[in-house]
């Protein structure tokens, strides 16, 4: 089969690999119909996530058709068209019973924090991902979700990570009616977080980025105000001036490890790196939000250390909430929003790229070329 193959930082290619096989009675084999390149994939591509091994196939956002199921799978049959939450979870452990599917205790032997994730580093289990023609799906009775027959496939693939992550970012902000919400980062997750803030009752939404094309996109898609941080001398002071001297009620970090905006953070978090990512957006969140406010973090940082102004958070009485999104928990509500016309996630897709050209896709997305917001990879079998 054709699959993306990681050869080291900034080096990926499309190669032929052996097709996956059933390894456990609860496995399924999925023929991929859509897969995305995510901003989190760029952290791997740039060599910033530990234990990202040569030969790995990335891709944690994908849809596909069930080709084969293991002997114990009861909820799926061949031919079902499914969307795949990026979390690999058992559905029965202590954390899954609390719907903390991203923290499953049984699917990642390499960590005590995050559960298994498709197509990420071996710190999340080392499972091959969906930037390929076929994928082995563990725990197939609990993860895959059958795509509603009236749903566009491009909408469905955004339900595997980007939309639920943005939605959970807004949810973790505990937004009250009329709140002012600031979203740092106008990539796909930040765009969806800004849109979701309105659904949760926000009275004002502001998105922060430094790329004008992304700011124009989020303004149009999420009907929000925007700030180009290159034009701001001090973010905390600027946001307090916009909010009667108090600061926003909720700040969302949808940027994570590769934030721009502070040369020292960038040098120590990305160039060297001495810490696990540039925590610029997290500093802005903590320092900008009002006293007693909430900071929601979905931007990805690598383990294990970052220089964070925790003293400011304590003295301001902040609530900090964070996690990888537990996708399955949000799907019923998000599907309802899509079917009711309140959300059209596929509008963020700007580029559809043949899987054979995956290297070009990574370069395009990484380098912010051609006004790229969200690229989707199309396998050969879907195009023929």
Could you characterize what this model shows?
Helix content is 29%, strand content 21%. By secondary structure, it is an alpha/beta fold. It has two domains: 2-161 and 326-383, Alpha-Beta Complex (Quinone Oxidoreductase, Chain A, domain 1); 165-322, NAD(P)-binding Rossmann-like Domain (Rossmann fold, 3-Layer(aba) Sandwich). The longest helix has 13 residues, at 327-339. The protein starts with a strand and ends with a helix.
* CATH architecture level-2 label of the largest domain: Alpha-Beta Complex
Number of domains: 2
**Structural class designation:** alpha/beta
**For the residues shown, what is the average pLDDT?**
96
Notable characteristics:
2 domains, seven-stranded mixed sheet, alpha/beta, Rossmann fold, 13 helices, 384 residues, Quinone Oxidoreductase, Chain A, domain 1, globular
Task: Please give the structural blueprint.
Blueprint: E1 2-8, E2 11-16, E3 28-36, H1 39-45, E4 62-69, E5 81-84, E6 87-88, H2 94-97, E7 116-117, E8 134-137, E9 145-146, H3 153-158, H4 162-172, E10 180-184, H5 188-199, E11 204-209, H6 212-222, E12 225-228, H7 235-242, E13 250-253, H8 263-271, H9 280-288, E14 294-297, H10 310-316, E15 319-322, H11 327-339, E16 351-354, H12 358-366, E17 375-378, H13 380-383
Parallel strand pairs: 10-11, 10-13, 11-12, 13-14, 14-15, 16-17
Antiparallel strand pairs: 1-2, 3-4, 3-8, 3-17, 4-5, 5-9, 6-7
Helix pairs in contact: 4-5, 4-11, 5-6, 7-9
